[in-house]
Amino acid sequence: MQVSKFQPDLFLRDYWQKKPLLIKNPWASWTNPLEPDELAGLACEEGIESRLITQDHGALALEHGPFAETRFGELGGAPWTLLVQAVDHHVPEVSALLDSFRFIPNWRIDDVMVSYAVDQGGVGAHFDQYDVFLIQGLGKRRWQVGAPCDDRTELLPHDDLRLLASFEATQEWVLEPGDILYVPPGIPHNGIAIGDDCMTYSIGFRAPSRDELVVQWTEHLLDQSDSDLHYADPDLALQKNPGEIAPEALAGLHAMITEKLQDREAFARWFGQYNSMPKNLDIDWAPEVPIDAADLHALVSAPVFLTRNPASRFSFVRESAGSVVLFVDGHSYPCAGECALFAERLCAIDEITVGPDDLKSPSTVAVIVALLNLGSIEIVDED
Predict the structure, then answer these.
(1) With CB atoms counted within 10 Å of each terminal CB, which end of the chain scores lower, N or C?
(2) In this structure, is residue 283 part of a structural domain?
(3) Does the keyword section mention Membrane (predicted)?
(4) Residues 171-196: pLDDT tens digits?
């Protein structure tokens, strides 16, 4: 299917996690937000995840960055593709692409991966366990999709790439600049560049697995435990057969395990922190000189903009009327009253205006100071 006028409510009803959709250039005016040379420069930097996929007589090989500046000039005429992860964390113009996809909750957004390919370049037929929007930024790419896959689908024997052993296209389209292809989880897809200077922006979404959540949540509970509770049965009754594990014993043992696991409020607070952890823990965004409450009041003597760091993750959980817990980069901040309203505004959009009246709440001041000192937000004068 393809549409020319995109309607988020209809998309969520009819396509989200159901079937692919081609969206023909819905932008008022499409401008490619990143030049190929800029992408190559990012791939040469330490701390930025990048990959290079080359082809040799149909076989694909993978290299991990950072790359030497001379590497791309050594590739010759064979097809190749450069992939750079989390470009939205480093390029504001790429981060701005996410504004058009805010109809999906922020906590689900992972990052924007950008690819550059020469003619016939691609990464091979594969499928993902998450949703993805593929925006054609520059040049043309032929996209093919196939029948749904799952964990039983056969893959090629490859040390580095998870490629399908067989792929049969059921639909295909040629995307031009500004076009978007939505691909649900489990749908195999294969993209092949048509001509050189083919750039694609892949907006991926977080989809934690059940195993991941169980492991991480239980590890957190163990870390937080302040005692090693042991099973006890002070009301033990005489059993007919000592070999039986009685129902009462099983109920007590099971309760020892599930009591903490089923604490929904504790789970919500843990998940907010866990899900908001920065993608790259090695990058420190904190300013060189921290500020305190007095510094903040001096900086906000007139209205200023508070701008979120594109690499930071913001979300909140509502605990009661007028009370929320704000989660930013793995930290949690209980907020009530005016501070809760501030937290909700901060999570809604990337930039908000803050003036002296907003600093009348000491808890709001404390949150702003903490986030400034983390590097999760910064102050920009309105002028």
Answers:
(1) C
(2) no
(3) no
(4) 999 999 999 999 999 999 999 999 99
